[in-house]
Amino acid sequence: MFQPITASIGLRYLRAKRRNGFISFISLASVLGIFIGVVALITTISVMNGFQEELRNRILGTVAHATVEGVDGSLKDWPKAVRLAMEDGRVLGAAPYVQTETLLQGQNKQGAMLRGIMPGLEGKVSDLPRKMRQGSLDSLQPGQFNIVLGSELASALNVRVGDSVNAFVTESVATPFGSMPRAKRFKVTGIFEIGAQEYDFGLALIHLQDGQRLLRMEDAVTGVRIKLTDIWQAWAVARDLANRMEGIYLVRDWTRDHANFFRALKMEKTVMFILLSLVVAIAAFNLVSSQVMLVQDKQADIAILRTLGLSPGKVMQVFMVQGLVIGLVGVALGVVFGVLLSQNLSAIVHVVESFTGNELMPADVYYISGVPTVVDIGDVLTVTAVAIAMCLLATVYPAWRAAKTNPVEALRYE
Questions:
Q1: 361 lies in which domain range?
Q2: Last residue of a domain, which of 226, 253, 280?
């Protein structure tokens, strides 16, 4: 008795037995359609979030969160840069590196990025020491000219641990036969596997001092790599470090180095969200159908309410309340089941694999075992808001038709 009259009547229509069973069936189909659409949306977006998180962690486990380089590709005062970086509480680790493009020649030839590192400091800025499939980074000793290759790069060169490869760099050297590219023979002492093709196929590691000798950089390095406590502060930390040093430096962070990749992932997620929203829209059309038939079935009731003084606007609210409640039930059930399914999807996939005997996502193909999912509360709220908005819009036309009912015409044949 304390409810507003429009909400009270609308909820009463929901509780009352309907004379037309087909209307009840359409209403149930609308609830199920909205339920399935919301579950599909939340699950798909959560899976895409999981893969994006997994790829980001793999990439950021190899590349630095931020780098500070010399403008001319040479940073001479790198010990000061490392010291200043480690004085910042937002920095977990800092390490110098040299880097250049190279052509590697084993039994085959393949271009790659040649990076000189300090094995003792590499673990502070990347996960490479924990991604070694054969050998270790400690085998990179100064003066021994050892090299560690990505797994796919080693396959492309058709070399194994113990074999030798020649590295050709862009700097040339004068010979009696003319200008020739500088080359050096390295011994393969390790193979790593990140799970990201860009690095497994295109990265080779040597010791920092070997890289300096190969590139004739003396004591200079290409730059300093930095690992942070918060990856989203990469640009600010690198900029602060460059400002505290004397001179002009080139500052980069992971969001700029891989901007196109993560922008593509975001675009794919947005497109998928729009496409799956059409499932909810189709269910909303079912809601329109059920509400239109309900309005037609309740013509006499609407006429009586109008003669008792209920305004057209109030009549419209009655049927909007009813349609919205039906939509909210579907949305609420969809959100609950969607979140539960997303959180347990990997376990469900393993159960399906055990029953079928087939591995749905082989680790040697996808580099990922199971289906990673990340349930983001912001995405869940967005899906909820979109679904409720569609349900609300679906009730407008039937409710407007009810408000336009002429009491005289509706009661003429009663």
A1: 5-58+261-411
A2: 253
DSSP state of 17: P
Rounded Cα distance between 344 and 351, Å, is 11
Q: Identify each DSSP E strand in 128-222 by its residue range.
A: 132-135, 146-150, 164-175, 178-192, 203-207
- Residues constituting the chain: 414
Q: How far is CA 125 from CA 73, 190, 317, in A?
A: 20, 19, 60
Whether 48 has a pLDDT exceeding 70, the answer reads yes
Of 365 and 315, more confident: 315
Residues 166, 286, single domain; the answer is: no
Q: What is the pLDDT of residues 218-233, one digit of tens each?
A: 888 988 888 888 877 8
Instruction: Tell me, yes or no, whether 45 and 76 share the same domain.
Output: no
What residues contact residue 30 under an 8 Å CB cut-off, 6+ apart? 283, 284, 286, 287, 289, 290, 326, 327, 330
Average pLDDT over residues 299-310: 71
Contact 65, 308 (CB under 8 A): no
What's the predicted TM-score (pTM) here? 0.67
Residues 215, 117 share a domain: yes
Contact in structure between 93 and 226 (CB atoms under 8 Å): yes
- How many independent structural domains does the chain possess? 2
**Residue 114: its pLDDT value, please?**
92
CA distance 27 to 181: 75
Q: How far apart are CA 381 and CA 38, in angstroms?
A: 11
Domain boundary residue, one of 209, 227, 253 = 253
Residues 372 and 283 grouped into a single domain: yes
Same domain, 181 and 199: yes
CA-to-CA distance for 49 and 53, rounded, in angstroms? Answer: 6
Query: pLDDT tens digits, residue range 171-195?
Result: 654 445 445 567 889 999 999 988 7
